[in-house]
Amino acid sequence: MKAPALEFSSRARRDLDEVRDWTIQNWSEGQWRAYYRGFAIAFRRIAADPDCGRPREPLGKGMRSLAYEKHLIFFAPVSDVGGAVVILRIIHQRRNFTALTYLDDLEG
Question: What's the order of all strands across the beta sheet hosting 71-78?
Fold first, then answer.
């Protein structure tokens, strides 16, 4: 069975850019590359099994999260993009994720 398409919201792309910038500034580019490899593994896991991770229904229909190191990757299948699984946000575990916006910027 083919894994569903995996898309990234513009907010998730910005989140990932912020993680990259902070990691390079505070650690190194090498540390960023190593950290990103772990993100890539998590993204592949989500694409292969959209039911992985923890349900986050109170935040949105079908929403789930998968922890990677100190970050949470929020994702859900989104009908506006053909039912593709969309990475909605990538946030640090200490952030107040219930106060964030997840679905307002999807590109279709």
Answer: 6-8, 84-92, 71-78, 64-68, 54-55
Could you tell me how many residues make up the chain?
108
The pLDDT tens digits of the residues spanning 13-45 come to 999 999 999 999 999 999 999 999 999 999 999
Classify domain 6-95 at the CATH topology level: YaeB-like fold (3.30.2310)
Alpha helices (H) along 1-108: 10-26, 29-48
Round to whole Å and give the CA distance between 48 and 79.
18
Q: How far apart are CA 24 and CA 28, in angstroms?
A: 4
Distance CA 5, CA 27 (A): 33
Residues paired with residue 40 on neighbouring β-strands, in sequence order: none
Number of Cβ within 10 Å of residue 57's Cβ equals 10
